Amino acid sequence: MKNFRKQFPVLNQYTYLNTAASGLLPEAVMEWRQDHDLDLLISGSILKEKQGEVLTGVREAVGRFFNCAPNRVALTPNFSYGFNTLMEGVEKGKKVMLLKNDYPSVNWAVESRDFETCYAEIDENLEQNILEVAERVQPDIFAFSLVQWINGIKIDLDFLKELKQNFPDLLLFGDGTQYCGTENFDFEDSALDVLGASTYKWMNAGYGNAFFLFKQHMEDKISPRSLGFNSLQGKYKAHEGSLIGKFEPGHQDTLNFGSLKVAIELIEKTGIENIEKQVNFLASEAKKAFEKKGLLEPSVVKRDLHSSIFNIRGDEAVFRKLRSNNILCSQRGEGIRVSFHYFNSEDDLEKLLKALK
Question: DSSP states of 115-182 as a string?
Answer without folding.
Answer: -EEEEE--STTHHHHHHHHHHHH--SEEEEESB-TTT--B--HHHHHHHHHH-TT-EEEEE-TTTTTS
